[in-house]
Input
Amino acid sequence: MTDVAKDRPNMKDTQEKLPVCFGELETVFPKGADGLRTPQAGCLACRHKTECLRAAMKSPCGLKAHEEFVDRAYDAGMLSFMQRWSRKKDLQRKGGKKR
Output
């Protein structure tokens, strides 16, 4: 076993120690009253915040959040129609959606 493998905890050990809210987008990265998503203050102190937010953004709800970001950029004039269409199509493919 290499030194790197010794330093990494087993996946089972890591999963047992994760908080209940791990990877839940609406808990760790909810939409505020202004329509923008912001992390919770309690989550910023958590040692799992980076992995948790990544897991939340890879979930189906996270893909919807990415679509919100694309729509907001289009509404602000930062994306053309074709860029918006292309990015949304890519997100739908990642999510396995068929329209």
The two ends are 48 Å apart (CA to CA). Residues 59-99 form one domain.
